[in-house]
Amino acid sequence: MQKSKAEEALSQAEQHWTDGDMAAAREAFRRARLHFHEAGDRGGESGSLARLGELEHRQGHMKAARELYVEARTLLTGEADPLAQADVLILLGELERSENNHGAARQALESARELYHGGGDLGGETQAWLRLGWVASSEGREDKALDAFKKAEQLARQAGDDQAGGQALMALADIERKLNRLDLAHQAISQALALFKSSGDVLDEAAAMAELATLARDVGERVQAVEGYQKAAHLFAAAGDLKGEALVLLALARLEYGHDSQAARKAAEHAAQLLERVGDRDHMDQAKQLLAGL
What we know:
By secondary structure, the protein is mostly helical. Among the domains are: about 1-80, Tetratricopeptide repeat domain (Serine Threonine Protein Phosphatase 5, Tetratricopeptide repeat), CATH 1.25.40; about 200-294, Tetratricopeptide repeat domain (Serine Threonine Protein Phosphatase 5, Tetratricopeptide repeat). It is built from 15 helices and no strands. Helix 2 packs antiparallel against helix 3. The radius of gyration is 22 Å and the shape is globular. The model has no long low-confidence stretch (mean pLDDT about 95).
């Protein structure tokens, strides 16, 4: 009985979170935690705390999130499922990375990776390698980041996870661009784009297309860049990502500025309208400033 109440509270918490009612979501997560505790389900109790920690993290409440993650991990001490411990460690590692605590992040993520590897969880290990790569990149250790992203891509391929494989390739491309190896960056983004298409991930496909357009722009291939930004804008629109569509249109307007005033105006006007709808005043002002110069 208590377990069914806990699961119902969890479902309510997720719905409140989706609806943007954070106070109600917090209260429901705490109810779920209490019901799991009364049912003697330490795994469920830990999971409720971990989700509440994610909510606090996304709201920028780092201290509260860290305390919840640590409590969630403590509840799993001695539990038979090491993968649940790894899941919490991934969250803790993400928090430490966002706080630029690179050493603590690396320690948590490496522990998670070892647990995933021991449990044969290729998907989890892939995500751990991805995050270890991001930590290394933040520290300026591009060689370590490349190794981590390549390992993540290899594991994703073994698991048949096209989305994770695409994410690893996009991360790899970012490092190649930093190292000015643009041909290798283009190759990685193109491979990621194909994976996102095959998995039906329109949003990541849009982001990859925009990155290809930006790469083309940076090497002076204006026509290819224009076509890429136009395709990316259509994809973002199809995915319902108004801000993504607007930012690509803004990039397109800047690219067309001085070459095709009519096309630049059309893109900037549409971008400004979308940015006003999503409440992004900074980028909306940039679009309006560009329009004023046309």
